[in-house]
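U., I forgot to send this yesterday:
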Amino acid sequence: MSASKPLESGKVRIEPSLNKNEEKFVARRRNSVLQSLKKLQIKCSKDEVPNIALLGSGGGERAMVGLLGSLVQLQKTSSLLDCVLYLSGVSGSTWCMASLYQEPDWSTKLEAVKDKIIQRLSGPGVSWGDSLAKLKKYYYGKDFFSMTDIWAVMVIPTYVKEINEHTLSEQWDQQGKDGKDPFPIYTVIDKQSKQRNKGDPWFEITPHEAGYSLAGAFVDASNFGSQFHKGSKKNKQDEFDMLYLQALCGSAIADEDEIKKLLWQKIKDFFQQKEKILEEMREEQDKRREEELRRERETGSEKEAGFKLGPPEALLHHLSERSQPDPNSPATEECYQVLMKTVDMNLSASTALHEPMRTTLNDLSGGRMKLVDKKEEKLNVKRHTMDVINNLSERIHIWPFDAWMSIIKCMNRWIWGRNYNFLHNMTGEAVHSTLLESETRDFEDAGLLLNSPYLSVLRKERNVDLIISLDFSEGDPFTTVKDAAKTCRERNIPFPEVNIPSEDSEKPKDFYVFKGQNVPTVIHIPLFNVVNCG
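Result:
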């Protein structure tokens, strides 16, 4: 494929070059950086203007607020932010980026933007009704409903205090032709590539395209998530909104057991609104009745409104055969209680099964379940959960019970960030064969592999001269830069030697500079250091 060929919407682009729109932005931005350097009395020619990338690490809410504060200080310090070409983030830092880019030219009014963000973060959360409405959009509007959708609705708003339904390309369009902000790069990883240690796990999402940073395989950002076949778009899906993108980028706040415990509790809290749940069910019934009556009038047929329940079984003996489930009936009450007990059962299993839950499990299984050790208990809970949900799924197909059951299925299958693979069935040697095989790929928080987005800005085409690494990690403040150096050695990517004095491991300084010949210079700034923290 010709390197000069522009990206066509609906086509896969595989070539070692920047997107044409990014190239145009870089040319404009370098001109403005040159002017900013002159104001700082740093003299250089147009060709000598350095490409500077600013990195925000993962770290949840701490990283979100930490990046915001760091950017404010960069701008206060002689407008240094005006010299930055790229702003790239992992996990919690992307939550900050999503908030910033809601405001066109945010870097020119950062103090006011910061105050607005902090006011929102200090305010009330998202209402239950708004969250349920968003869940409904995700559940019915996408080909794949995964843990990431659940995380987006139930967890992300508790941190960012909003449901951001804009898309990345919409946000960038608002910037205008002469946008004054750095170019944003959001990063995740391909789970399958990470697990197999084959292919390119590093995946980036920019306002113009999304794809594999090192393999050089991309699609238009608005088409990420759509179905492709042999390099051409086959089935269009809506572009992801910023709420989903923040969930895709930022979901590794703890280990798997802790996340499961958190999510089961969130699910329980969410669906404990019993009267509101039943009211949603009534509204859905009314819509169905109206739709069926309309069809009857149009066709003259005598279709029954609603749906039919299957034959009753021991577990749900109250579920009688009827054309419409009544929200006030014992059958619906039984359904609700079974689902809530199933959630309780899994919540308890995420720590340990206490005696009351053992009794509940035994009752639900008719005395068939024999509990042994904790590992076996969890397996039994998982199997029994799927039995219950599969049984209910055959009988009940109405909002919001169907979404509730799907959420429980997602929890047991533990699938995150599943989307169509735009490289499916393509041919050629440009990308690793493992990226071409499966129809879907799973994407997850890049912090699970490297908690700072070095690889996105180390693309050869981006020609970055200086990397400023803002590290908000909770543990060893040098892990990210050491791991980046190791990864670059393994992949023959230019990167400076990283040598940390042994005495600094426990008492890190406020910044470090790593440099060398024909490699980018790295300024590493750990949040937790002796200057900040004593």
